[in-house]
Structures are given as C-alpha cells and as structure tokens.
C-alpha cells in the first residue's frame, strides 16, 4: 500500500498543481473520480491491464465513458498514465488529489466509528468539537462498528482518539500484563 502511495503522489501533486493554476480543481476532482471508479471496475481493470489491448483501445474505452468530463488536459494525463503503465494508480491518485484539495481548503476528514448510530445533533456536536480542536473545518464519516461495545473511535489524519469501551478494555488488559 505504501508503495502505491509513493508512486501515485507525484502524479496527484502534478495534477493538483495544474488544476490550481487553471482554477479547475472541481473539474479535475470529478474527472479523477470517474476515472478511478472505471479502473476499479473489475471488467475495465481486466481490459486496461491486458497487454493484448492497445493504448488506443484503452484510451477509446476510457474517453467514451468520460465523455465531456475529458478536457484536453485530462486526456493528456490519461495518455501519460497509459504510456507509463500506471492506470491502475488512478484510485490512489484521485484520493491523494482530494487530500491536497481538502488541505488547501482548510478541511480535514475524520472517520468516526461508533457502536451505535449517532443522532444528527450528536454528529453536529462532534463535528464542532473536532473543528475547534484541530482549528479546521472537519468533515466526518460515521461508521457503525458494533465490536466497539460503546463509545467512539475517531481517526483523523494520523491521530486516533479511542474513547470506546473495547479500547478501554484492551488498555486495561495491557496494563495488567505489565
């Protein structure tokens, strides 16, 4: 996984730099999302990784689906990825592009894992608390993870805030071993 990120990062940074220069971040975001979804599709992945298919056939397939989302810059980018046999990096390139875009907008993404569903009020309160703590706008995605037993675990950037019952039980068990 780390290797994919390492190889994809320069592509994402180059595309983000171009998008920023041309003020087309949202168009690039949409195009990259479409391309990433296409390449993640098993049928398309089978075509783009099969050496029997020519670069022109792969281009035609991708550009037919992309339609008007494929500006000249997007087309050149896709051709570059095809030439370098890097099309399978598109999901990671798209993800890193979104991270760069969010950073520039002062937004941080957080994954909130909870044993039980959160109400809208609880989500709003949690978002406000995290925004205050990180001094940035925070977007949360809530996932129910019954194994937590109770409480929440928050993943934001490299930080993990574990206020779950299972996390506390694990910490207690670890301290008893010492």
Automatic annotation (TrEMBL):
Q: Which family does it belong to?
A: Belongs to the ATPase delta chain family.
Organism lineage string: Bacteria, Pseudomonadati, Pseudomonadota, Betaproteobacteria, Neisseriales
HAMAP family per the UniProt record, alphabetical: ATP_synth_delta_bact
Q: Where in the cell is it found?
A: Cell membrane; Membrane
User: What protein name applies here?
Assistant: ATP synthase subunit delta
Query: Where does the protein principally reside?
Result: membrane
How does the record classify its membrane topology? Answer: Peripheral membrane protein
Q: Which domain of life is it from?
A: Bacteria
Kindly give the InterPro entries that the UniProt entry links to this protein. Answer: ATP_synth_OSCP/delta_N_sf, ATPase_OSCP/dsu
User: What's this protein's function?
Assistant: F(1)F(0) ATP synthase produces ATP from ADP in the presence of a proton or sodium gradient. F-type ATPases consist of two structural domains, F(1) containing the extramembraneous catalytic core and F(0) containing the membrane proton channel, linked together by a central stalk and a peripheral stalk. During catalysis, ATP synthesis in the catalytic domain of F(1) is coupled via a rotary mechanism of the central stalk subunits to proton translocation.
- Organism, by scientific name, is Vogesella facilis
Q: Which PANTHER family match?
A: ATP SYNTHASE DELTA CHAIN (PTHR11910)
Instruction: Kindly state which keywords UniProt assigns to this record, in alphabetical order.
Output: ATP synthesis, Cell membrane, CF(1), Hydrogen ion transport, Ion transport, Membrane, Transport
Q: Gene symbol?
A: atpH
């Amino acid at each position: 996984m780390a290797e994919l990120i390492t190889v994809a990062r320069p592509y994402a940074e180059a595309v983000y730099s171009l998008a920023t220069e041309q003020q087309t971040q949202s168009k690039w975001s949409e195009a990259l999302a479409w391309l990433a979804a296409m390449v993640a599709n098993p049928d398309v992945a089978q075509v783009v990784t099969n050496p029997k298919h020519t670069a022109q056939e792969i281009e035609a397939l991708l550009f037919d689906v992309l339609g008007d989302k494929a500006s000249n810059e997007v087309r050149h980018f896709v051709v570059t990825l095809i030439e370098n046999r890097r099309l399978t990096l598109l999901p990671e390139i798209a993800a890193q592009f979104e991270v760069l875009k969010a950073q520039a907008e002062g937004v941080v993404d957080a994954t909130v894992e909870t044993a039980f569903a959160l109400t809208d009020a609880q989500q709003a309160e949690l978002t406000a608390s995290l925004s205050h703590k990180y001094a940035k706008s925070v977007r949360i995605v809530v996932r129910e993870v019954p194994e937590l037993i109770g409480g929440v675990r928050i993943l934001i950037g490299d930080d993990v805030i574990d206020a779950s019952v299972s996390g506390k039980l694990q910490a207690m068990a670890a301290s008893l071993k010492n």
